[in-house]
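Trying the structure run again after the queue cleared.
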Amino acid sequence: MPLSASTTLPHSVDRVTAVFVNEEFLRHTSEYVGGTLESFAVDGDTAGAFVTTTVRTIPTTRMPDIARKFVGESLKVTQVETWAAPAADGSRQSSISMKVAGAPLDVKAVQRLVSVDGSTRVELEGTVTSSVPFLGGKIAEAAEPMVGKALNIQSQQAQAWLESH
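Done. Tokens:
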């Protein structure tokens, strides 16, 4: 299933990047959806190219019943983001890979933080796939809105976080 989302935050790319790789912010967003942040690590200097690994446990209460039968009451999601160094205009790009333990679901996406007149347009393009024969398409179809919603929550919470910190 294709995945696409876009939003604009009235803050610089540097500030948005700093929030997206802030452990306390990630803990906040995990708890906001009823989950927990299990671990977070940054490999490299965030001023250049770097990699983050985030492990969260999230509830499945908002998933369709058919999906919950397969995965249970919660999911452990590992998200790896490979960030490129800033472009000349300050824009950033990261490749995102998400794996869900115990579920045949993969998310691959590219996130761009584009500098636009002092604001940041957050663009996300990717795919949600499942390797289950015959049911894979239905599982990916059910998961895609959840992934899109999670990314929108991240942007909404980033806006609130930037205003309060």
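Strands lie at 2-9, 36-43, 50-59, 74-83, 92-100, 105-116, 119-130. Worth checking whether this holds up in the mutant runs.
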